[in-house]
Give the backbone structure.
Amino acid sequence: MHKLLARQLAHQDIDGEDLSPQLQELLQAVDTAYQRAEYDHQLMEQSLENTSRELVIQNQRLQLELKSRKETELALRQSEERYFLAVEGSNVGIWDWDVTTGAVYYSPAVLKILGRTDYAGFDTTESWLKYVADGDRHGLRQAIKTHLLGKTSQLEFEYQIRRDNGELRWVVSRGLALRGESGRAYRIAGSIEDITDRKQAEDQIRFDAIHDVLTGLPNRVLLLDRIQHQIENIQRYPEARFAILFLDIDRFKLINDSFGHLTGDQLLVEISRRLKTCIKVSDTLARLGGDEFVILLEDITGESGAEQVAERLLSQLKQPFFLEGNEIFTSSSIGVVLNHDHHCKAEDLLRDADTAMYRAKTEGKGCYRLFDARMHEHAVTRLHLEAGLRRAFEANEFEIYYQPFFGLGQQKLCGFEALIRWQHPQKGVLLPSEFMGVAEEIGLLAEMDRWVLREACHQLQEWNSRFPQTEPLCMSVNISARLFDQHDLPEYLASLLAETGVDSSLLQLEITESCLALESNDRVVTQLLQLKSLGVQLYLDNFGTGYASLSYLHRLPFDGLKVDCSFIANIGISSSDKSFVKVIFDLAESLDLRLIAEGIETQEQLQDVRTLSSCYGQGFLFFRPMSKTSVGSFISDYQPGMFCEEAS
Ligand code: C2E
Ligand code: MG
C-alpha cells in the first residue's frame, strides 16, 4: 500500500510544485525508503533463493550420505552375518585374550567344542587349559609363550582336549598377538577348531597304508619295518633269536575258482583268525596279498621253537572251514627262516622265507621247510631259468625231438612222439623236466604246446609226402592242462589241420591223467569231445600214475592208453608190477583201446610186454628221441624187425 502511494505521488497525480517542502521532503524520504526497501527486498529474495538452492544441495548431499551409510550398514551386517555363518558353520570357536587384564572372551562355539552349556567361570586362559589333555598342556603353554615373545609369526598348535564326560577330541588353536610400540604383546586373539574328524581320517589313511584292507592285518610295509626293527635289535642283543614264517595256502586258486571270490575272501579272513590263535600277541601276523601270510616270531628258542609254531599252523589249517554251507579243506606250505648274521635287510629275510616256502610246495605241499643257503642258490638258478625261458621263443632255442614207436608184432614203424627240447645257449640240450614246471608257472606252457603242435604237424606232412612208399606215419603230441584253459583249442587245431593239410586221423593227442583229475571241469570234457569230432586220436598218457577216475575211459572217446615207463621198467622184476600191467592190458582190450608201452629198454622187457599183449611199443631199445634231421635218414633206412632179437 505504502509502495503504491509513493509511486503515484512520485510519477502521476501530484505536481511537485503543489506540495509543501516538508511533504516533498517526506515524499523524497519515502521514495528513498521505498527504493531501499525494494533493494533490500531484492537482496532478501536473492538471499532466500541462494539459501534454498543451498538447502537443495545440502539435502542432496545428505541423501547421498544417508544412502552411503545405509549401504555401509548393510555391508557391515552382511559381513557380520558372513563371519557368523563361517564361524558357526565351520565349528570354529573364537577367543580374544586381553593379556594385560587376563580376561578372555570365548565365543559360543568354543563352549560347543568343549561340550559345555554355560559360561559360568569360563573367562580366563586357565579355564581353557583345564580342558587340555594332560600330555598336551605343557606343549600348548610353550607354543603360546613362544608366540607372545615374538619368536613365532603365528600361534598354531594341535592337541587333544578332554570333555567333562571324558571324551577326547582333537583341536587346533590358531592365534595372532597385537603388540605395543615396545613390541610387548597386549592382546592375542584367534580360533579353536575341532579337527577330530580330520584326525580320524588321517589315522585311517595312515592305518590303510600299512594294513591289509581285507583282513586288517599288517601289510608288507609294516611287516618289513618290524623285521628291520628286529634286525637292529639283534645287533644290540646278539643272543636274541627271531624267525620268519612264510605261509602260502595250497591250491587257493582252485578254491577261488570253485566257490567264487567272495567265499575265497571269507576264507582268507577265517584263516587269518586261526593263524592268530597260534601265535603270541607280541608276534606279527601279516598278509602280503593273495593267499600269502607271514609271521614274525619274536623271542624264540632257536629252530625248534619256530618248528613247533609251524606245525601248529599246519594242523590248524588242516581243519575244515565251514563257509556259506560249504565244507572247505585247505592245507598250507610254510617256509621258515631264522635270523642269521648275514641278514641285515628285512627284504632278504623275507625272500629266504619265501624260497623255503617254495621248497615246501615243490616237496609235496602241506609241510614246512627250513631255509638253507643252497635253497637260495637254487632260487637264483630258477630266476635265470625264468628269464631264459621268456627269451627262448624269440631266440628260436626250442627244438622238437622225435621218438619213434612201433607195432610190436612186426616192429612196423607207426609214427613218432614229439618231445620238446631247449637248446640252452650255455647248458646245452635241456629236457622238459628241467624247464616245463617253470614254464607252467610263468604262463608259457600253453604257448609252448601250440608251437609244438604246429611244428609237429608241418613236420608230419613233410615226412609223409617225402616218403610216399611207407604207410602214412602218425604224430603223437603231448598237450598240457594249460592248453585247455584257453577254450579255443578245437578251433586252433581245426585251422592248423587245414593249414598243414595233415589227415586228422594221423594226429594223436596225448593227455595226462592230471588233466582229467579236474573232474568238475566240464570245460575239458567238452573240448575233448570237440577234438574227437575233428577226427584226431586221443590217448591217455602215463596211464596208471595219476588219479583220474576209471569211469573216464568209458565216458570219453579215448582211442588208446600209454602205459607209463615206470611199470615197464619193473615188469621183469616185480611180479606185482607185471600183474598190474596185465590188468591194464586186459582193461584196454575189453574197452577196445589201443596200448602203447613206453620205456622199453631191454629185450626182456620187450618179450614180457609181447607175452601180455600185441600192442605198440616205444623205448630206448628201439630208438631214443632224435632231432628232425636224423629222422629223415632213419625213415628211409628203417627195416621192420631190425631191433628184435627174435626177428634178427
Ligand atoms: P611222456 O609223454 O611220457 O614222454 C615219454 C618220455 O619218456 C620222454 O621223456 C622220453 O624221452 C622218455 N623215454 C622214452 N623211452 C624211454 C626209455 O626207454 N626209458 C626211459 N627212461 N625213458 C624213455 P622226455 O622227452 O624227457 O619228456 C618227458 C615228459 O615231458 C613227457 O613224458 C611229456 O609228459 C612231457 N613233454 C615232452 N614234450 C612235451 C611237449 O611238447 N608238450 C608237453 N605238454 N609235454 C611234453
Ligand atoms: Mg607222452
Summary: The chain has four domains: 2-81, 90-200, 221-371, 385-629. The mean pLDDT is 89.
